[in-house]
Amino acid sequence: MQIDLTGITALVTGGSGGIGEEISRGLASSGARIALHYNSNRDGAERLIKEFDNGSIAFHSDLSLKGNAAGLFDDVVERMKRVDLLVNNAGIIENAPVSLPGMEWMKIWERTMEINLNSTGMLCHAAIKHFLKNSGGRIVNIASRAAFRGEKEDFLAYAASKGGMVSLSRSIARSFGRSNIKSFVIAPGYVWTPMTERVEDKQAIIDNELSLGEMTEPKDVAPLVTFIAAGLLDHGTGATIDINAGSYMR
Ligand SMILES: NC(=O)c1ccc[n+]([C@@H]2O[C@H](COP(=O)([O-])OP(=O)(O)OC[C@H]3O[C@@H](n4cnc5c(N)ncnc54)[C@H](OP(=O)(O)O)[C@@H]3O)[C@@H](O)[C@H]2O)c1
């Protein structure tokens, strides 16, 4: 099957590394122009823009700061003139044991919510308005299996933020289908990226949790976004697609 995304502009948050890098590369290799968002990894973002060499542009925004997400969307529309696909991929996971003092714990909760959920909400809001003025569009929210099976006690905020992304995505699918706006969730399990580099004893995870017996890599997640961008999953709008190496079945 040949997928041609010529004429499509995709905003990928956190496109500078990990899963977002591979999503951006997959979309670009099928012809899409990428508005490649980054925060700290400017070199990574610029390297990819050079590699794609197709009119893609890198955009900086620290999504931990309230309001930046709306500014990011406006910047992209101003410079690239349109957005057809929004991929909310930027995210953090921070360790917050319940033993922390309340306000310290809350700081991590709020930072996690700001990047993972509030910015996603803001970008979806801006995208919906933009899509309503144009002929529609697609949204992909990168959540996590944590939204469904829960997380360990140190990561309550992370799981809650990902749960919010799932219900947001479903509500968009229910509300805007007739306006040609489609919304999907991808829920990865463990994926081998900078986010999971800190995890000790990966072999134990592979042995005990992953029925495929190998770690998922960004290249195992990215093709699905290209497939969605091409409109090949439109009748699955509202769906969550699990990519977790058989570690968790809903
Ligand atoms: N890896 C996994 O096992 C796994 C599992 C389930 C779900 N996920 C989800 O998949 C998504 C991508 O994760 P990943 O594994 O690829 O992680 P990653 O390599 O750590 O990438 C995270 C991305 O988020 C961006 N980011 C971090 N803080 C930011 C901030 N303050 N403002 C704006 N952007 C910020 C980073 O940009 P810079 O590098 O430019 O700062 C980076 O591009 C996340 O939403 C994550 O929750 C990952």
Written account of the structure:
The structure is a single chain. The chain is of the alpha/beta class and 250 residues long. The chain has a single domain (9-242), classed as Rossmann fold, CATH 3.40.50. 45% of the residues lie in helices and 14% in strands. It contains eight helices and seven strands, in the order E-H-E-H-E-H-E-H-E-H-H-E-H-H-E. Strands 3-2-1-4-5-6-7 form a seven-stranded parallel beta sheet, sandwiched between helices. Helix 1 crosses helix 8 (218-229), helix 3 (68-80) runs parallel beside helix 4 and helix 4 (102-133) packs parallel to helix 6 (156-176). The mean pLDDT is 97. Bound molecules: NADP nicotinamide-adenine-dinucleotide phosphate. Residues 14, 16-20, 38-41, 62-64, 89-92, 115, 142, 144, 188, 190-191, 193-196 line the site of NADP nicotinamide-adenine-dinucleotide phosphate (NAP).
C-alpha end-to-end distance: 29 Å
> Strand order across the biggest sheet?
3-2-1-4-5-6-7
Helix and strand run: EHEHEHEHEHHEHHE
Indicate the structural class.
alpha/beta
Low-confidence stretches: none
By DSSP, the count of extended strands is 7
* Number of DSSP helical runs: 8
**Radius of gyration, in angstroms, nearest whole number:** 17 Å
Q: Which CATH C-level class is it?
A: Alpha Beta
CATH architecture: 3-Layer(aba) Sandwich
The rough form would be described as: globular
Question: What percent of the residues sit in helical stretches (DSSP H or I)?
Answer: 40-55%
Relative strand content: 5-15%
Number of domains: 1
Q: CATH H level: which superfamily?
A: NAD(P)-binding Rossmann-like Domain
Tell me, rounded to a whole number, the average pLDDT.
97
At the third CATH level, what is the topology name?
Answer: Rossmann fold
Small molecules in complex: NADP nicotinamide-adenine-dinucleotide phosphate
Question: Major β-sheet, in short?
Answer: 7 strands, parallel
